[in-house]
Amino acid sequence: MIRAFRALVARDLTLAARVGGSGALSLVFFLMIVALVPFALGPDLNLLSRIGPAILWLAAVLATLIGLDRLFQADEEDGSLDLMTGAPVPLELVVLAKVAAHWLTTGLPLALASPLFGLLVALDGTAMAATALTLLVGTPALTFVGAVGAALTASIRRGGLILAVLVLPLMIPTLIFGVSAAQSALSDTVPFATPLTILAALSLIAAVVGTLAAAAALRWSE
Amino acid sequence: MSALPSTSLWTRLSNPGHFLRWSGAAGPWLAGLSALTLGLGLYLSWFVAPPDYQQGETVRIMFIHVPAAWLGVFFYGSMTLSAIGTLVWRHPLADVAQRAAAPIGAAFTLICLVTGSLWGKPMWGTYWVWDARLTSMLVLFLIYCGIIALWRTMEDPNRAARAVAILTLVGAVNLPIIKFSVNWWSTLHQPASILRMGGPTIDPSMLYPLLTMIAAATLLGVTLHLYAMRTEILRRRVRTLTIREAERLDAGAPVLVPGPAAGSTPLGQAL
């Protein structure tokens, strides 16, 4: 089981690295959204630093969508998903491995790179660290919720657009708590730990529900 | 699809063929009953209920707004139950019920949002506030839209049914979270201007018209749902018959078949 899990994660990481990874692409997309906001709002650094965490979170949500539609679709098209479904490991484990690999190539780089992008929106050191931490804790929830949509639309041609429509409403709670955790690090009204704990809980719930639902969607879509 | 005499009443009622028969008989009665209740409710809320001492005549929006909100949530609940029926028992009527419910629920949610914002303008001075109730209803509407969109993209109704059932269940898990979290969030950032109307605190002169309207709206919703389900069943029969006809032609059968061969796929067999 553990070996199968590791093998799958390694396979997907290799694929991501060699096939012009979606990880780099979503990082570039993330940078683009962050860069677009000052053009829309005007280069007022005070305003930008106040809404900086919100911008980073919004960019993270949108960047998560990039590449999500290929998560199961690529394997569905070349037939390797059938092999995985027929393999003597639970389909839930396959989903968990694939989603973990996807998060490692998209969510994790976003969280790690966010302090750098925080510079662009004039965040100070504390806010930068806080935002990076909330992204680290919260992006798994986004990926797991997204995986459900990816599984549901795996066999639909051009499922990318409908995937966004399905998944974005379900990402709202994560966005709310992610932003409020990052904001609470800026002001002293609420202790930082409270929303952060809820964010962590959301990630754990999404991991369980998302894995089960995505596996069910793949199993029943034949 | 032979008649099974020993099956329970529930099983017989939920067989698509039987469903078509009894819903055809019950439909007009339900429609009549909901028209009567709706008439009574509209009369009560328009002429009998007094204008509010603060809000004046605009309070009458409530008699449309609250039933619509209730139905928006009610249909999501019924879709959740149908989703379980689809996934656990693979019941053919469960996904028919679910598919028929989605547009109706979305429509009532939209009515709730629109009347709410029309009511909000004179009361709060703005069409829209990002408060907990409004936001969670908006998210509910978005989830409805996603479900309808997914139905429409998948061609095979059986596959679509299971996909939509999974999405419905995931959305149902999320709805309480949305409600709770937005509450929590808006109390942090702005004083919540939540529209509260705890049952007992409302005066009987308005409560009874409101309850009548809620009953009328529920009857109306159930009637619409019943007819939408009938339409959906018939649509699937047409689809099955079309596919069979195509397969028959594909197998080299002559296009024009007299008498018995044409009658060999009776409607009742098709589902």
Automatic annotation (TrEMBL), chain A:
* InterPro entries found in the cross-reference section: Cyt_c_biogenesis_CcmB (IPR003544), Cyt_c_CcmB_bac (IPR026031)
GO MF term (any one): heme transmembrane transporter activity
Which parts pass through the membrane? 21-41, 47-68, 132-154, 161-186, 198-218
Q: How is the protein disposed in the membrane? A: Multi-pass membrane protein
Q: Which UniProt keywords apply?
A: Cell inner membrane, Cell membrane, Cytochrome c-type biogenesis, Membrane, Transmembrane, Transmembrane helix, Transport
State the GO CC annotations. Answer: plasma membrane
GO BP terms: namely: cytochrome c biosynthetic process; cytochrome complex assembly
Cellular location(s):
Cell inner membrane
Q: Which domain of life is it from?
A: Bacteria
> What family does the database annotate?
Belongs to the CcmB/CycW/HelB family.
Cite the PANTHER family for this sequence: CYTOCHROME C BIOGENESIS B-RELATED (PTHR30070:SF1), HEME EXPORTER PROTEIN B (PTHR30070)
Role according to the record: Required for the export of heme to the periplasm for the biogenesis of c-type cytochromes.
Name of this protein: Heme exporter protein B
* Gene of this entry: ccmB
Automatic annotation (TrEMBL), chain B:
Q: Where in the cell is it found?
A: Cell inner membrane; Membrane
What InterPro entries does the record point to?
A: Cyt_c_assembly, Cyt_c_biogenesis_CcmC, Cyt_c_biogenesis_CcsA/CcmC
This protein's UniProt keywords: Cell inner membrane, Cell membrane, Cytochrome c-type biogenesis, Membrane, Transmembrane, Transmembrane helix, Transport
| NCBIfam families with a match to the protein in the record | ccmC (TIGR01191)
Q: Name one Pfam family in it.
A: Cytochrom_C_asm
- Among its keywords, does the record have Transmembrane? yes
Cite the source lineage. Bacteria, Pseudomonadati, Pseudomonadota, Alphaproteobacteria, Hyphomicrobiales
Question: Topology versus the membrane, per the UniProt entry?
Answer: Multi-pass membrane protein
Q: What is this protein called?
A: Heme exporter protein C
Cellular-component GO terms for this entry: plasma membrane
Q: Of which family is this protein a member?
A: Belongs to the CcmC/CycZ/HelC family.
Q: Which gene encodes it?
A: ccmC
